[in-house]
Design goal:
Distance between the termini: 25 Å
Largest sheet: none
Order of helices and strands: HHHHHHHHHHHHHHHHHH
CATH architecture of the largest domain: Up-down Bundle
CATH superfamily of the largest domain: MFS general substrate transporter like domains
Helix content: over 70%
Number of strands: 0
Strand content: under 5%
CATH class of the largest domain: Mainly Alpha
């Protein structure tokens, strides 16, 4: 009986993950296309709107630490946040000016981005062994992103505000569903909230170690060219004549699933340094494919640029998470992971979203919404390559530590 109850809880958590990432996928891939092709926003305006997710990532630790950890049950916080998100997305879809859309999206992301961490923490509270059980639950989130991407492509609505309306409806459904999730009361109700409770001094001190500092700096820097992909790929593919661009872009998430299984195999042969380097090199290679490909005779380059996403993301970010898990003492691992997420998904992507817009406007054709895409992608490829070379020269890790990482990674990927 207990096994059946535990299985039912896992299924409920998996459905939560499916809805969580399906909602995100409805608008995140296509919003740049709508803003540029339909509303004729400048490249910098598009970058700033997409970059609201980075602002949300910066706000998220404070909101989660103050509200979910200390005041209210997680499932109720998730329900309220998604309800507000549904309302905000609905009103965003009805706007036509940059100040209005930016304002609504900024508010939306400040409410939405914390839900990603809350969904994870709620799952961890209701499973016995996260290392073994969380993976199959979390993978439903990737499947949700894939399903909604295929649907958007089939509906041919990438240049409209309809994806935001779908996201709004999905958020309302998610809000109602959250009320059915297992009760998850706050664990630190009586503890005083301070900045040091989010990023303890001991976690910050980890950055004084040379290898950790270099890793953090490299992670921050690589997130700058990373934003090129999330901000402009869908617009680029549509302007290049690729049909069902949103559907084809789900190939990146499919490759994520495959690469996740392959990471332990490559880790044993490459170690920390060269796994991270392989991820960086893949970003440079991807952007080179985008720069040199076309929708006709060299369409395979576009396809490879999308399919390499698994290596781009998993080899760098997942390996980086395992590296942090090994370097930090057990009592500081969550804080260290939160600190790196703050540096990368927050600060790194915020800087990148602004810079990518400036670069796009610089390569705008006669000030229009048509761009010299080859120059844009080659700029991103060059930036990725420079970061890679610098990383290879200055980052050093002991071989015996790589063995510990391999064991940790293998257990985490089960």
């Amino acid at each position: 009986m207990k096994r059946e109850i535990a299985l039912l809880i896992k299924v409920r958590l998996a459905v939560m993950m499916f809805l969580e990432y399906a909602v995100w996928g409805t608008w995140y891939v296509t919003i740049g296309t709508w803003l540029s092709l339909t509303l004729h926003f400048t490249g910098q305006q598009v970058g700033l709107v997409v970059g609201t997710t980075a602002v949300g990532a910066i706000v998220a630790p404070f909101l989660v630490g103050l509200i979910a950890d200390k005041l209210f049950a997680t499932e109720k916080v998730l329900a309220v946040l998604h309800l507000v998100c549904g309302i905000l997305l609905f009103f965003t879809a009805r706007q036509h000016t940059f100040p209005a859309i930016y304002g609504f999206m900024l508010l939306y992301c400040c409410f939405f981005m914390p839900t990603l961490a809350l969904a994870n923490s709620l799952s961890f509270r209701h499973i016995r062994d996260p290392k073994e059980e969380f993976g199959p639950i979390r993978v439903l989130g990737t499947i949700g992103w894939i399903v909604i991407g295929i649907l958007l492509g089939k509906m041919k609505i990438e240049a409209t505000s309809t994806p935001l309306l779908l996201g709004s409806a999905g958020s309302i459904i998610m809000s109602l569903y959250c009320l059915t999730l297992p009760h998850t009361p706050p664990l630190a109700r009586d503890a005083k909230f301070t900045l040091s409770s989010l990023f303890p001094r001991e976690a910050l001190m980890l950055l004084t170690e040379r290898s950790m500092a270099i890793f953090a700096i490299a992670s921050f820097l690589i997130c700058i060219p990373l934003t090129y992909y999330y901000t402009f790929t869908n617009l680029f593919l549509n302007q290049s004549g690729v049909t069902n661009a949103a559907g084809k872009m789900t190939g990146g998430q499919m490759s994520e699933l495959i690469c996740m299984l392959l990471i332990p195999f490559f880790f044993r042969r490459l170690g920390v340094k060269y796994m991270l380097a392989a991820g960086m090199a893949s970003w440079a290679l991807r952007y080179t494919f985008f720069a040199l490909g076309n929708a006709d005779s060299r369409a395979w380059m576009f396809l490879l640029g999308i399919l390499i996403h698994g290596v781009c993301y998993d080899f760098f970010f997942v390996t980086g998470q395992i590296y942090i898990d090994r370097k930090a003492p057990p009592e500081l691992r969550s804080a260290a992971q939160g600190l790196i997420a703050f540096i990368t998904l927050g600060l790194g992507m915020f800087v990148g979203s602004w810079l990518v817009g400036v670069i796009a406007d610089h390569y705008s054709v006669n000030g229009s919404n048509n761009y010299n895409w080859r120059a844009i992608w080659l700029t991103a490829a060059a930036a990725s390559a420079i970061i890679l070379v610098l990383f290879l020269f200055v980052f050093h890790e002991k071989e015996e530590e790589d063995e510990a990482s391999t064991k940790s990674l293998e257990s985490a990927s089960l």
